[in-house]
Amino acid sequence: MTQLMGRPILGLPSDLESRSTLTDLLTGVRTALLTLSVVAAPVFGLWVLAPYGDDTAGDAARAVCGLWLLGHGGPLVRGPGAAPVTVAPLLLTVVTAVLLSRAGRRQARRARGRGWLRWRSPLAVYAGYLLVAAVAVAQCADPQALLRSRALPDLAAVALLAGGALGHGLWAGLGRPLALPRLPLPPALWPDGAGPAVGRALAGWLLALTAGGGVVLATAVLLGSAGQHAQRLGGGTADWLGMLLACLAVLPNALVWSAGYALGVGFAVGTDGHAGPFGTRTGALPDFPLLALLPADRGPDWHLLAGAAPVAAAAAAALLLGRAATRWTPAQTAAAAIATALAAIPPALLAGYLAGGALGPGRMSELGPVGWQFALAQTGWLLALALPGALLHRWWLGRDGGPGAGPVLRARLGAYRLVCRLAA
């Protein structure tokens, strides 16, 4: 009787054990449908507002699936000539990554402390998400679809984005936030706390550079001819809303392009075109309002003022590094600044790759910043400005030997003052 009373009456299993694999699979399907609804709501809304005679609900559904795959970075083709379309609307990519990361965090909270069983639930969620992706690819395989899929590349793109975002959510949910790896350098060059300081400086650089790109884009909108271009394209409420939603979807792309313009390397506008502060040359362009923001084909003038954006971004990184370097030596400060410049390469390569692509065959097969040029420009600006700026800010904070000065700097200042007193 005592043994029976000591047992749980209902024998309820734990939260993880109570969830079957089918439940986790359906969780992945639900997450995919949630991201799909972000595209479906405006597309079906526009289809209802302007139902063209040759468009059916099936055509609208295939368009939704095509845009959803394009938001994952999957390459599509359009038209009878199979013209490539690979420019991903990064706003959809960001929303999808955020939703997937949140799903990964929820799975991590359920799986914490369960040993190897923690991977059963996330893998089932991942499989459910890919199941919806396979259905979307099958829907866009119709030759009559406006945007046709390419099965293997599209599934690979969805698998890569979903795996990375879910993995990030799992890693963060398990209490292991992403951090820069410790460099194999001696303490004389890499002190304690250098990694978090470099991470903060890199975040400050990226945020300030993005904000500077937004200022450049806003200036182009105010001074450009996008409004007149949109008036020629817009023929009704549905057309205006469609153009507005399309411009919003590629707004992050435009921010990356503007950042490349401010850095000086510019971006490609077709295989034989280029836009940059030192001059712009373009040929015939597709009808799209954002492409109307390009400056006229002329040499450098006030467009060089866009260079103020990376200067301000490098100053932000230098201030963050200099504040953390008050207890470091100049060599350690310089090593941290160089590490910040090198750490900017991977995100720059990724942003340059995702923000560009192709809008058609021939000369429109290249559009957007060149990844390696975009990354090299960021590293060059950081080495040219953030490195001396961090050293200068470190010296400025510790010039009086106050509590903010590092021990080495205070010792040198004390020795210098002692020598001066003895000489007097």
Automatic annotation (TrEMBL):
InterPro entries: DUF6350. Keywords: Membrane, Transmembrane, Transmembrane helix. The chain crosses the membrane at residues 29-50, 81-100, 121-139, 202-226, 238-257, 302-322, 334-354, 374-392. This is Integral membrane protein.
